[in-house]
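Lab intake sheet, docking and co-folding queue.

SAMPLE TYPE: protein with bound small molecule
LIGAND NAME: coenzyme A
LIGAND FORMAT: SMILES
REQUESTED OUTPUT: full 3D complex as structure tokens
PRIORITY: normal
SUBMITTED BY: R.K., bench team

The fields below were copied directly from the construct record.
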Amino acid sequence: MSTEAIFSIIPATWRDLHDLHRLEHLCFEQDAWSIIDILGVLTFPGVVRLKAVVDGKMVAFIGGETRDYQQTGWIITLGVLHDYRRQGIAKALIAECEQQLESRVMRLCVRASNQAAIDLYKQVGYIQVAIWPEYYRGGEDALVLEKVKDL
Ligand SMILES: CC(C)(COP(=O)(O)OP(=O)(O)OC[C@H]1O[C@@H](n2cnc3c(N)ncnc32)[C@H](O)[C@@H]1OP(=O)(O)O)[C@@H](O)C(=O)NCCC(=O)NCCS
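RESULT FIELD (auto-filled):
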């Protein structure tokens, strides 16, 4: 798709299980979540789950949660289908997820080689605060990024 898509952001539900499973595999390959993890993000209480929809089809998804012991909001997954990238969809999903999670501090982790995602997160105000060595399958490090929301 070459033209800009008009998208809306709406809550996802368990009915999106199949579509999210497909999106995860297309976006994450070896890091794709299992069907059990996907069911969890779509059903666990307190999880923010949002999808971007174009012409009735899910083209992107973000999941976020608050880890109470840290009082920190975490973006736990974010993926946009290839044909819908570079149209501001991820940015819009992050903004909405940040707004729905009440914690002032937001965090996420990202593969050290995932420059597209790192550029995205830096553009919206995240900075690196830690490295988790060999966190990912295959032994790649995770960068932990953080943003302190404006009050
Ligand atoms: C990373 C990802 C979520 C970005 O989604 P997106 O909808 O294309 O991102 P946006 O259009 O909102 O991009 C906003 C900004 O992020 C940066 N960015 C996004 N993709 C980029 C890329 N491929 N290369 C360089 N910068 C990029 C740019 O600064 C961009 O602004 P611009 O288009 O005005 O230059 C998407 O590429 C994706 O799903 N990748 C596979 C899954 C993944 O890596 N998820 C993140 C795991 S932590």
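REVIEWER NOTE: The radius of gyration is 15 Å.
SIGN-OFF: pending second check by T.M.
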